[in-house]
Amino acid sequence: LKNLKITEIEAARFLHDGGFDSTGRYFMVVANASNMVAVIDTKEGKLTKLVTTGATPHPGRGANFIHPKYGPVWATSHLGDETVALIGTDPAKHPDQAWKVVQKLEGQGGGSLFIKTHPKSTNLYVDTPLNPDAETSQSIAVFDIKALDKPYKVLPLAQWAGIKDGARRVVQGEFNKAGTEIWFSVWNAKDKTSAIVVVDDKTLKLKKVIKDKRLITPTGKFN
Description:
Strand content: 35-45%
Low-confidence stretches: none
Distance between the termini: 27 Å
Number of domains: 2
Shape: globular
Helix content: under 10%
Largest sheet: 4 strands, antiparallel
Number of helices: 2
Radius of gyration: 18 Å
Order of helices and strands: EEEEEEEEEEHEEHEEEE
CATH superfamily of the largest domain: YVTN repeat-like/Quinoprotein amine dehydrogenase
CATH architecture of the largest domain: 7 Propeller
CATH topology of the largest domain: Methylamine Dehydrogenase, Chain H
Number of strands: 16
Strand order of the largest sheet: 1-2-3-4
């Protein structure tokens, strides 16, 4: 590439997963050893804020949605604790909430790697594949975005997959393009059966279990 411009922005240790806010202007990247999220203004090429969230944040790309009270937020789950941190991302219309943790939800436990929603969904999905408790690592917590104070629902996806042995860790939900269904991987050792479980987003019911000898510890699934 010719005339490539590189801008170095000091943040915090150690930058890992991240994704953009709903406007596409601000890049939200976790500094997992510092228990922070660095907010980068890609238009100005500057650090906007370092936001302390919880123990070892790990969002994947994170999740954008409209909070019933605080407006646009970006969410991250955590490896080191059970919380889900919601950060306000609208400095224009919600300046008092911008770049602050406006709410913390309590999930199933630590060990989360990915959190997911979709513009057409009212559900927020949180995995916990690295939790030491087998029942927790084999299931998904689902929060109702319209009623975040209500208890989350638990979907026992490893059980739905019908796999009898192995770790069967459930990880990384990814929506189809239409936002009508979400696909989760059921991780297992390479000599064990793995699967992809498809969930109907509206009903939270099982739609399909995909198994194949070529599915060896599947993770990401992308349109």
